[in-house]
Structure prediction request, 237 residues.
Amino acid sequence: AVLSTGNELRPPGHKLETGQIWDSNKTMLLCLFKEHGFPTVDLGIARDEPNETLAKLQEGIRCADVIVTTGSVSMGERDLLKQVLKEDFNADIHFGRVNLKPGKPTTFASCEGPDKRSILFFCLPGNPVSASVTCHLYVLPTLKRLSGQILPEGQIVKAQIQSELKLDPRVEFKRGIYQAASMETPASVHIVGGHMLSSNLLSVSTANCLVQLPSRTEERSILYKNSWVDCWLTNDL
Prediction:
């Protein structure tokens, strides 16, 4: 089941007032899960109110084993998800931060449902690209294992990066286009777009992999062109 949170969100196609945005996250996640063969339930949008968030999560627990949310997991006054999970569901928060860019606020929790089922919660950041990246890294592999699928070999491949990049203190995932090796050239990867903002969904639609960059150290602050990197394939080549 998929839930978006935020007072500013409106369903795609609805008229927007000042300060409002369309809910692109849920549309993206529903399409992604459908593409991978997982049936989903659309829980809609919850405003930043504890009672409304609680009601939506209760609805999700009745019909699903895994609940994926976006938004409401940072440090703001209206970021209520962890509070609701702990106080109303007695959920175990297994982690509430990850040392990752983008996706730092990602939260994973679990609780026992009313019929003794184990319910998993993946609470992803509200920024669209952060939600996409963390879904590929955490949610999809979990769903595949729970459904008995064998994760395919070769999903993480090596390639030479075709640009020079400054490294971040955190491990960073950038969107890229992977090209397999040929008789003449080694495998290569091009970073997509010049603006890697966590709200830039255009780069998600054109990329076929996530490029994993190492964290910055005193000895290495720049990754030079033709350095070898790991590429997490997200689309069929």
Q: What stands out?
A: The radius of gyration is 19 Å. The chain has a mean pLDDT of 92.
